[in-house]
Every structure is written in structure tokens, then in C-alpha cells.
Design brief:
244 residues, 8 helices, elongated
Amino acid sequence: MGTVFAVALTTFLASAVEAIEMVAIVTGVGATRGWRSALAGAAAGFAVLIVVVAVFGLALTAIPIELLRLVVGALLLVFGLNWLRKGLLRVGTYGLRGRPLGALDEVEEVKADGVDWTGFVLSFKGVLLEGLEVAFIVVTFGVTGHQLGVAAAGGVAAVVVVGALGLAIQPAIRRIPRSVLQLVVGLLLTTFGTFWAVEGLGLDWPGSDLAIVGLLVLYSVLAATYIFMRRSYRMRGAVRTAAS
């Protein structure tokens, strides 16, 4: 009984870490690029994941996950830096309240009634990669503890619980100004992209997954510093203009 509980709890907690990353990507992409495309990409990712798990089964650990991490990490890093740049410029210019009406400086990339393939692909790759990570965890703990069914239940429960929490906070996310969302999602994608790309190169992060928190803090501090400097510069310029 003790072994069953240990395998279930360990698998659940380890899978929950990966599920949080998965939900963070899908939620962030949905909030900034469109929920239809993000959810469609997530569904497609789960569909491919089910096929892969069904075909490979216990041989999942033979899949070269490092190459997938490198590819997905590089992709997230490219898009993350682009969104981070936009978020920094907009929040640094207009503040946390977002841009006023009539201040749009570019045509919005997403059409409300269309499919955004960028959001689709990002969600797809994020779900597929993190889903494979969960599958690896289930196989590893399940086979080691001779409780594969219990480990599978723990992994699925972690994804369901974290996914439900992500859906629950969706209404609150919709009320956040778009420029702030771009900044936050840019920070998240840049963080995950850096983490996975480095892992894909075969390098180990100090503290394992805790390094994600350190990267997020680092990028957040740099972003806050840039925003503060940009806002201060604009305020000084406004004061000089008013004085003249």
C-alpha cells in the first residue's frame, strides 16, 4: 500500500510541474493570439501524443527528447523575444493600463474569426513536448515501482487538475490589457524557450526545473528595469515640453 501511494504521489507531483508549463503556454498563447487557435493546437498536440504513446508504449524512453526540446525551445525563444519586445515597448510607453483607443501603431496580427497558425503551432508543440515529458515520468516511475497503472493515473490526474485550474482563471486573464499580456507571455515563452533550448543542447541546469523560476525572475527584473527607464525618459521629455 505504501509503494502504491508513493508512486501515485511522486508521479502526480512530477507530472504537475510539466503540466503547469503546458497550461502556461496554452493559456498565454490563447490570451494573446486567440483561444480558438490555442485550444485547437492543444487538442492536436494531445491527439498526436496519444498516438505516440499507443505506438511506442514502454519504449517511449528511447525517443530522442533532447532534439525535440532544442527545436521547441528555439521556436518559443524566437516568438517569445518578439512578443517581449512588443510588450516592453507598449507597457513602457502607455503603462499597465494599455494603449488608448486610436493609439494602435500596427495592424493586429490576429483575426477574431480566423485561425492563427502561430498560436496553433506554439500550443501544439508545447502540449506535445510537455505531454511526452509526462509520459516519460509515468513510464519511469511506473516501471521502477512496478505500478504502471497507478503511475498513469497520477500523471493523467495532474494534467486534468492543472488544466482545470487554467480554464478557471481564463475569465480573469481576458480582462488584462493586451499590452500587459504580451509582456507576460513574452516573459514566459522566453523563459521556457531558454530553458528547453539549453537542455536540448545536452546541458543541465542547476536545480533542474527550479532554474525556470530563476530565469523568469532574471528576465522580469531586466524587463522592469527597461520599463522604468523608458517611462522616466518619457516623463522627463513631457516635463521639458510643458515647460517650454
